[in-house]
Amino acid sequence: GEVCNMINKKYNEFLPSMQSAEDLVSQVDGLSSNIDLLKAGIENEVQRDLNVAVAEFTELKQQLERDTLVLSILKKLQEFDTAIKEYNTALLEKKYVAAAQQLEKARSSLKMLESRKGFELKILKALGTELTVQTQNMLYHLGEEWQTLAVWKLPPSKESSGLESAMHSELHLRTVPSKEEEIAGPPVASVLQAFAVLGELHTKLKIFGQLLLKYILKPLISYPSLQPFTEEQSDVFILRFKSKEPNLDHSSPMEVFDKIKLIFEVLHKYLLNVPLEQPVEDKKECRVTLAELLGDMIWEELSDCLIQNCLVNSIPTNSSKLEQYIEVIKSTEEFEKALKNMQFLKGDTTDLLKYARNVNSHFANKKCQDVIVAARNLMTSEIHNTVKITPDSSVALPRLPDPGAGDHLKMQTTSKLLHNDTVNLENETKLSQYTFSLPTCRISSSVEKLMELAYQTLLEATASTDQCCIQLFYSVRNIFQLFYDVVPTYHKENLQKLPQLAAIHHNNCMYIAHHLLTLGHQFRYRLTNILCDGAATFVDLVPGFRRLGMECFLAQMRVQKGEILERLSSARNFSNMDDEENYCAANKAIRQVLHQLKRLGKVWQDVLPVNVYCKAMGTLLNTALSEIVTRIAALEDISAEDADRLYSLCRTMVEEGPQVFTPLPEDDKNKKYQEEVPVYVQKWMTFKELMIILQANLQEIVDQWADGKGPLAAEFSAAEVKSLIRALFQNTERRAAALAKIK
């Protein structure tokens, strides 16, 4: 019973809550259908209204944007129009800056209009054209004004020299009294500022600057005789030139600077002291003056011209004048300062001043350049103008500065070195070191001058600053290296063709080599301190110069030998001399050889040192004798008449050969050398022995041989003597007996 009660109780409680849940469900259903109705209503009506409203709103917004655009365009068009109107008014009143500014306003309005995309107006093209026309019109007016402000009176371009044309150039600058400024027309400033506003100032000034350089500044620098000359009239200032006799070829930098300064002062006063009002983005006022603009344009060219045509010439050529150069540096500084004050120059130490201050280096460069140019001129001058030098010749020079204590080498010492050592030309062997201690001979006067130049430059070097000293020392070495390269090439043809020139060149080289041995030595006290490891020497160049002289002379010797052999080759081998024609040919060949030797003996006379002369002539005479011996010794048959004729040909050589030895112009002094010919002609005795054989009988030949101990055996081999016997004598028993004794 208890359980039943509990169940009933729970059930009774449950029924009502079940009921309320059902009510809730039906309520929700009702609400849901209401929402559906409402949603349908919104979807159908309100949504449609909203769409319409948005569309209307967008359309209105676009309309507003269009109206704003049109309005801004109309506004710009109006601005453009106003600007052009105001420009016209200002132009009529000659208010050039205002007019130019209005034009620029019109220009910026037009730019705005053109930048609107999707809004191309036909009118823009017309406005652009209008603006261009007005700008050109304004520039034309300004140009006219400018031409009255600065008037160039220039010579016709056909004027002859630069000096002439400068004399006829004038620049007139209009001056305006300040009180009547309004009446007299616009001042310079307004014209130039208007140009600036229109962006045309640069072009105008550039043209002005070029004229200024060409007709005023450069002529003043180039022609020392030109003087600027100014004249002031009521409304014009005239700048012209007058000419006065210059006292020097180049005016001093001081004079030139003063003249140029005067020109700039005039320009500054009457034309260029005008600030250019240029609007700058960040609104700071920047006042650039015209002077500065013009300075920018012409300074570089002007300063180059001043350096090249004025400062370069003022660099001293000897070190003693270097002290005085301080003046030039000072005046360069003042010149720059003056130009800075007038605002033509901005910034510090320009190239001009740097150049002036760097005088020591320029001095050295100029000096070295002068030295090399002088040296080159000497090397390319004629070789055959000669001077005579003797063992005691020394280079003409100012006294060398005394280096104080130490083993000071006097200049002459070197020429006392022996000069009797021999040179073996025949075998072309090396020279002994002292061979050419200046024996008496002739050298080119240009080479003597070259040596003086070298000594003087070294002397100058010892008195210079270290840097300069080093440069000068090397430029002296360059002189010799240049000689080594230039002379043999430049005079090549003549050295090959003319035996006398070859001899002079040979002497020149030996003379230079001789001086190079001691050249550095005399200056070593000063030079060694500066040049590391005592490199102040020229000794290393000596062998090269000796070789150069030898090679040239030996080449000439080869040419002469070749000619001798060539002439002897026409002697028909000296065979069959009993034939008249053959004898004539042989005789002619011998005459030609003697003639050639005689001519050489003359052209080398007094030129070559005597010992070299005798060796050279001896070598050539030897070539001839040796060739004749070889040809005769090779003959297979010599008749008695042949032998007589050969003997007389040989006698001609022996009698006249020595006479070609004429080393000295005084004939009586040559006898000694002619008697010494056997010393210089290796085959002389051989030749004499051959002549004896041609005249001897068999017994005499055997006696001359004397069992291989006689004079004949000293000159000929047994085979050669046998061959000659067979050619000269018939085959008899006596001949056979004689032949048997030659062994």
List the helices and strands and how they pair.
Elements (H helix, E strand, L loop, with lengths): L1 H91 L3 H20 L6 H28 E4 L8 H6 L2 E5 L6 H4 L3 H10 L3 H22 L3 E7 L3 E8 L9 H20 L2 E4 L7 E4 H25 L11 H16 L9 H7 L1 H21 L6 E4 L51 E4 H18 L3 H25 L1 H6 L1 H24 L1 H7 L11 H27 L11 H24 L6 H24 L6 H17 L10 H9 L1 H4 L3 H12 L2 H8 L5 H5 L2 H11 L4 H9 L2
Antiparallel strand pairs: 1-2, 2-4, 3-4, 5-6, 7-8
Helix pairs in contact: 1-2, 2-3, 2-6, 3-6, 7-8, 7-9, 8-9, 8-10, 9-11, 10-11, 12-13, 12-14, 13-14, 16-18, 18-19, 18-20, 19-20, 19-21, 20-24, 21-24, 25-28
Looking at this protein, list some descriptive labels:
28 helices; single chain; 4-stranded antiparallel beta sheet; 743 residues; mainly alpha; two-stranded antiparallel sheet; Tetracycline Repressor, domain 2; 4 domains; 8 strands
| Oligomeric organization of the protein chains | single chain
Low-confidence stretches: 177-186, 278-286, 398-436
Portion of residues in helices?
A: 55-70%
The total strand number stands at 8
Return the domain count.
4
- What is the average of the pLDDT values? 80
Quickly count the helices: 28
The share of residues in extended strands comes to: 5-15%
The coarse silhouette is elongated
- Major beta sheet summary: 4 strands, antiparallel
Domain ZW10 C-terminal helical: 588-742
Pfam families: ZW10_C, ZW10_C2, Zw10_middle, Zw10_N
Subcellular location: Chromosome, Centromere, Kinetochore; Cytoplasm, Cytoskeleton, Spindle; Endoplasmic reticulum membrane
Organism: Balearica regulorum gibbericeps (East African grey crowned-crane)
